[in-house]
Amino acid sequence: MSLLGPTAQGGPEFIQLLTPEGQRVEHPDYAFDAGGRDEAEVVRGFYRDMVLTRRIDTESTALQRHGELGIWTQLLGQEAAQIGCGRALLPQDFVFPTYREHGVAYCRGLDPLRILSLFRGVDQGAWDPNEHNFGNYTIVIGAQTLHATGYAMGVQRDGLVGTGDPDRDTSVVAFFGDGASSQGDVNEAFIFAASYNAPVVFFCQNNQWAISEPIERQSRIPLYQRARGFGFPGVRVDGNDVLAVHAVTQAALQYTRDGNGPMLVEAYTYRMGAHTTTDDPTRYRMSEELEYWKLKDPISRVKVYLTRNGLADHAFFDSVELEADELGVRLREGCKSMPEQHPLAIFDQVYVDQTPELAEQRDTFAAYLASFEGAH
Amino acid sequence: MSLLGPTAQGGPEFIQLLTPEGQRVEHPDYAFDAGGRDEAEVVRGFYRDMVLTRRIDTESTALQRHGELGIWTQLLGQEAAQIGCGRALLPQDFVFPTYREHGVAYCRGLDPLRILSLFRGVDQGAWDPNEHNFGNYTIVIGAQTLHATGYAMGVQRDGLVGTGDPDRDTSVVAFFGDGASSQGDVNEAFIFAASYNAPVVFFCQNNQWAISEPIERQSRIPLYQRARGFGFPGVRVDGNDVLAVHAVTQAALQYTRDGNGPMLVEAYTYRMGAHTTTDDPTRYRMSEELEYWKLKDPISRVKVYLTRNGLADHAFFDSVELEADELGVRLREGCKSMPEQHPLAIFDQVYVDQTPELAEQRDTFAAYLASFEGAH
Amino acid sequence: MTKMTLAKALNAGLRKAMEDDPKVLLMGEDVGKLGGVFRITDGLQKDFGEDRVIDSPLAESGIIGTAVGMAMRGYRPVCEIQFDGFVYPAYDQIVSQVAKLHFRTHGAVKMPMVIRIPYGGGIGAVEHHSESPEAQFAHTPGLKVVTCSNPIDGYWMIQQAIASDDPIVFLEPKRQYHADKADIDETAVPVPLFSSRIARPGADLTLLAYGPTVKTCLKVAEAAAGEGRSVEVVDLRTLSPLDLEPVYDSVRRTGRAIVVHEAHTNLGMGSEIAARITERCFYSLQAPVLRVGGFDTPYPPSRLEEEYLPDLDRVLDAVDRSLEF
Amino acid sequence: MTKMTLAKALNAGLRKAMEDDPKVLLMGEDVGKLGGVFRITDGLQKDFGEDRVIDSPLAESGIIGTAVGMAMRGYRPVCEIQFDGFVYPAYDQIVSQVAKLHFRTHGAVKMPMVIRIPYGGGIGAVEHHSESPEAQFAHTPGLKVVTCSNPIDGYWMIQQAIASDDPIVFLEPKRQYHADKADIDETAVPVPLFSSRIARPGADLTLLAYGPTVKTCLKVAEAAAGEGRSVEVVDLRTLSPLDLEPVYDSVRRTGRAIVVHEAHTNLGMGSEIAARITERCFYSLQAPVLRVGGFDTPYPPSRLEEEYLPDLDRVLDAVDRSLEF
Ligand SMILES: Cc1ncc(C[n+]2csc(CCOP(=O)(O)OP(=O)(O)O)c2C)c(N)n1
Ligand SMILES: Cc1ncc(C[n+]2csc(CCOP(=O)(O)OP(=O)(O)O)c2C)c(N)n1
Ligand SMILES: [Mg+2]
Ligand SMILES: [Mg+2]
User: Fold this and answer.
1) What CATH number has the domain bearing residue B192?
2) What pLDDT score does C189 carry?
3) Cβ of residue C65 closer than 8 Å to a chain A Cβ
4) Count of domains forming chain A
5) How close D72 comes to chain B (CA, Å)?
6) pTM assigned to the model
7) In the 3-class helix/strand/coil scheme, how is chain A assigned residue by residue?
């Protein structure tokens, strides 16, 4: 793997607070902030979050293999990026995800079964975004970055930027991938956000791949530098370092909440799994690459750190494992017993005010369906 | 007018070789190159080009006022940007214009009447782009920047980049405006060109306005810096200085022909007229602004330079004026006597291989039209 | 009672909607200081401020995409697309997001957005300034599509569209903007938004029109009356949903129908309307439903647009063909 | 003679076209090393190199927009859009540039581009992966739109489309990719690209299908035959232009027609075809032309798609309704 161009890591612009070997390091601009709580406790919490998130992922992958899900978008390897970011959010902040933010969803309190129902084909991810300030999964690449920007413009109009009140000032996070950075919509979102000084954190998980295409196809320079072209700051953080991601995201959120306009965070990470369960990465990438990244696993480094420093004991790790097992069971059972929608339901979800012609189509179809019931 | 942000001028990044006062100045990186010819002769040529271009523009504006054109896109004030660029092109280079590149079209040898026919509504600008290596006017903002990039990818595939042969190495110029820089397409063009290292010069005429919107709405930093976000060089040149534009464009063209990938040139200029003849700029901008820019007129500074240095005499200026008058007459007469298309022609221009159903529609309409002829 | 052009009526309707509901925002290219290239938003930024009348960067996908976010935040964005031919960069946001978010979320998300598009030809413009994109939007479930043909409808329909909780593509026949004036009674009770209207009663044949062709068809009816033929004209007003009950009634009486629009004939609104009328009025029809539309060529250069657009003569010709069938 | 699936046949057809003409380029997301998410371009980058099989940045407008430039430089780009629902970001380039450049230049510019789109539902996918956008493209003059329903057509039609000097939207029914195999005789003379084909003769009723619904309709005909009803099935193959002469002939014989497609019924191909058949065969029709299509809702979650898509029963039901009319 080249260390030049868009894949360069290291140097002062690569923010890291916990090395792959589990060593705490300092960065001149960013420090981990436990928010007044006991730091070890917070880090243990992150560890738990990441393990549970990984379990959601592996469990879902297994459910797909067993035919219970149509497809699954794996986040394996991106746990630190998502938990670090998700745990830096304040309740009033709002998130616009792609289709892979299971860890962020978990942080926001969304029941993973709401996500499984999408990938099972029961619905399309029908949660109410206002329930957890977590928007709906968006499959068309990049579209949500504009939604985030518009939402942030709404936040501005609500007078919730730069008031100085930490319970009110609000930021909006737009998630997107390295591949998405090539979409017109994403670049337009940069332009609108810069033009209106909107409180958006553009959070790019650069997991090195857009399906089979490496990051070099999308950019010849590190992605965080894209922001330079639009006149707002961009930073690259070790996306497999939950402490660094937390610190950087927290700073970025505050920067935007304070009314300084948008900011880009590139979480430099790796998609350890396939693009989705229907993808076969052996067709386009070397297994050594995966081996290389396994050494940077986001969870192991926290475990090493906690263990080496005596901040967590066996009992703790066992309890997390147990919790993960319980979560696994809940997901398996919940998935298999998920109620189906009635086919007629789709007609009632198109409009707030149903149209006579669609109501008629519904009624005709209802009568048609009923004709079979009569027949049996 | 603010001297900060996107409207900043001056400093080492603002390339100028001829001041508004007609003073030649040096720039460390860019020198005017007369291509082996007598420099004064070349500059006189530029002067002539700019005067004729302005005449095309004012004459067309008048034709529109007299109802001979439906609309006209004025280039008043942008003569140096267009002539400086147009005269730096080699024959093999290819140009993708917007709807305002009348000066570049002139440099490429396109008869202005071909352009007038578009604004008269006789056709849509139907010239063969291969005749003068000058593409068709494009009205949908930004679309042509992708065409230019694809064309340049074709040039690469033809093996005409970086061969070292000055008669073969080819560049492609994509024109666009400051407003256009906000379109997804333009940013995607940057991405594709960078990704494939395509020989494109993105030539932005920042004329400060996109209809009624000032450049600040599109960008908070100088536009030439947009390129930084995509990993290729961008420069800002005094767009009202024909010598500087020529020098910078020549360098940019050579840079791209040599196989270094794309480059962005921002020609910092001013739209002295209305957006089009149907626009009324008094609704949105101060007349002082125009006065300020009149002092930077691209033609007067060359005239002052030529006169002060004894490089041109009255006879020269008179002859150019005379030539402009003749051009004016030719345009007026050519415009008014332009043949109309027959309505049936449109049916034959849709496809290379006409479809039976459209041929039938044509025949039916022909019979319908004929029925009137019979009636009269 | 004020006499107004369609342009002024739309302006007045927008103003009223903004006064009535502080959540209503306008957004688009040049809608602010300039008041839009057609001046439909004239004076609104001055009175409601830059936060509510928003000049946008030059990017249509950006306009609609950010409007989606504003709607999610509880605002009611009214987006102006400068000309019909420039809606396509926003097409993805419109058909994949605006149209689908309510469905995707089983109703949790509402998209009370209006997308205003000056549309149609006849103004002598250059390419991309005379398109009629209605069928593409009407084919998209989740959107509603309406169009006004006169100042009174303009005044009321824009307010009704803004008040609707569903996303609405609001098509404004640009060549009517300054064509005629009408008396607008701000105290009247408007007809419902999603209803067609019999613009002129008749007995022998039914002409179906909307937006810019309503006026043409009224002239046709007038001319036909001179020849002793009684032509009914329906102004459809709503294109999705269609309100065809009055049309079926009419066709059952007249036995003949012609749909007239500027959009390309192939797969235009006329094809759907013809298909539905035929399904519902099969035994009443004495001739196939005919369609008079723009030809199936790109919109031509303006010097040929009079030939391209359905005009009095072409519609009269179709009336003859239908009656003689 | 080789037995191939539609996927393999398309791959073989692309390979042949690339061998025949060095100007043919493939471009799209993941078309290179991966061979496309459906493997339609499998092995082609290996054999023809990265300059001819081009993995593009993730931007559909960029793909089509750069392909326009390549075509202007004399190349014949074949663009893959990964899934139907992702063509919309490229919609502007397709309808305003690809479709119009030939017209704009009075023929000086040719646009020999093929836009390949795997389309339609039935594969259990998530949102945006099962759309049927054909009507939107067929409504756009300047484009031609074709669709194959079987491996033999796939093999020949893709080559014919690439050889065409007009831009072609080439729709591939993705659920047929691996469904059936057929013998392909590479030495045969293929039927012309822009022609429909009687897939099964019959006397009582005409079923019109294309792409994914051809197979459904053949099954319907089979089932109907069991009930003593003789159903003719036409595979339309070309959607713009339509080749309806054989259909008119058929309907004049049978007196009844039904159009079956997955796209939304409202303003789908069925509406245009119904309108045309009614215009041409008015006195032969014994029932209105019926349409069986996707409902006028967004494409539903996959667990409901079987109900949403026109299937054997829904088409049979329409056959009954038509015959009983
Ligand atoms: C507009 C659009 N085009 C294509 C696709 C198909 N697609 C789904 S995911 C994907 C790759 C995305 O890569 P990236 O943005 O890096 O995100 P990641 O999947 O790596 O998280 C593609 C091409 C899509 N969903 N939307
Ligand atoms: C996609 C699109 N949207 C809107 C328009 C309408 N329009 C024509 S020119 C223009 C402003 C362009 O500004 P800029 O790019 O700075 O170029 P300039 O006109 O100043 O040369 C606009 C909004 C258009 N032609 N295309
Ligand atoms: Mg990625
Ligand atoms: Mg400008």
Assistant:
1) 3.40.50.970
2) 95
3) yes
4) 2
5) 7
6) 0.98
7) CCCCHHHCCCCCCEECCECCCCCECCCCCCCCCCCCCCHHHHHHHHHHHHHHHHHHHHHHHHHHHCCCCCCCCCCCCCHHHHHHHHCCCCCCCEEECCCCCHHHHHHHCCCHHHHHHHHHCCCCCCCCHHHHCECCCCCCCCHHHHHHHHHHHHHHHCCCCCCCCCCCCCCEEEEEECHHHHCHHHHHHHHHHHHHCCCEEEEEEECCEECCEEHHHCCCCCHHHHHHHHCCCEEEEECCCHHHHHHHHHHHHHHHHCCCCCEEEEEECCCCCCCCCCCCHHHCCCHHHHHHHHCCCHHHHHHHHHHHCCCCCHHHHHHHHHHHHHHHHHHHHHHHCCCCCCHHHHHHHCCCCCCHHHHHHHHHHHHHHHHHHHHC
